[in-house]
Specification:
single chain
Length: 282
């Protein structure tokens, strides 16, 4: 086997966590376990899934944790409308054309927002993780500095606990509190990009699983292809979007979203396998 493979897991709330888990489990069922990629890049929901992989629980066990109520982690319930969030993002795009200035303004608003206590949110995120330790595999977790607007990539060499890194990457602005690490506060990595797939530059094969395929995904995939990567992307089909519902942060969406991801992977596996294997010599 030759070539370097990157698995990119995008954001999408608790529904996205469930869907990503279902897709990964479904691909493995079809003989394509992509969790042994050379690097796994996780943003928001994707950071949670990235942190759960290769931590002692098999994909079927992780899937069961999303589908069976007795195994589910306790989650906080919050009102969230994706449409309103998209409107806010459109407003920021108009008012702040520079992406760093835009995320800095979002950070300013997020720091001032009235949300649940940080400790409560961190407890929920930590409860999702099979282990408090970083995986031995190369896992990279994307967040955004709320003060500077710049993105940061945490890994096992960053001196940051896994729970803190994932909490930062999952800190949906204006919904959850920005995560404090040292003297800095961090926003959801999705404040930069829902997938941050461009951070996989330099790899021969890139598989992107994107619960929320915002328009920038096409540009990121095109960039990777121009750089010579073979790229495959899986985005939610109609059944998966129905499972997500209007509020992908609603914990009740998990069983249906996980099942939808599982079923979708069975359909998508052939195209994913062709791309993944062609680029890596499997």
């Amino acid at each position: 086997m030759s070539g370097r493979r990157a698995l990119v897991l995008g954001g999408g709330g608790v529904a996205g966590i469930a869907w990503l888990t279902g897709v990964l489990a479904g691909l493995a069922e079809q003989g394509l376990d992509v969790t042994d990629a050379d690097v796994i890049i996780g943003t928001s929901a994707g950071s949670t899934v990235a942190a759960q992989l290769n931590q002692g629980l098999s994909l079927p066990e992780l899937l069961a944790r999303q589908r069976e109520s007795a195994l589910m982690n306790r989650e906080l319930t919050v009102e969230f409308e994706l449409g309103r969030f998209a409107e806010l993002w459109a407003e920021l795009f108009t008012g702040f054309p520079d992406p760093v200035a835009r995320t800095r303004e979002l950070g300013r608003r997020a720091v001032a927002a009235d949300t649940v206590p940080e400790s409560d949110r961190r407890e929920v995120v930590a409860g999702r993780l099979p282990s408090p330790s970083w995986p031995e595999s190369d896992v990279r977790i994307v967040a955004v500095d709320a003060f500077t607007g710049e993105h940061v990539v945490f890994d096992r060499t960053s001196g940051v606990t896994l729970a803190d890194a994932v909490t930062a990457s999952c800190a949906v602005p204006l919904v959850w509190p920005p995560a404090t690490i040292g003297t800095t506060r961090y926003l959801d990595g999705g404040a930069r990009s829902a997938t941050n797939a461009d951070l996989a530059a330099g790899h021969d094969a890139v598989l992107v699983l994107a619960p929320l395929p915002f328009p920038e995904l096409d540009d990121e995939l095109a960039l990777l292809r121009r750089q010579g990567a073979t790229v495959a992307a899986v985005v939610p089909d109609e059944a998966s979007l129905t499972a997500f519902g209007a509020n992908p942060l609603d914990p009740s969406t998990r069983p249906a979203s996980a099942t939808a991801g599982l079923h979708q992977a069975r359909t998508a596996s052939a195209a994913v396998a062709a791309t993944w294997r062609e680029a890596t010599g499997w």
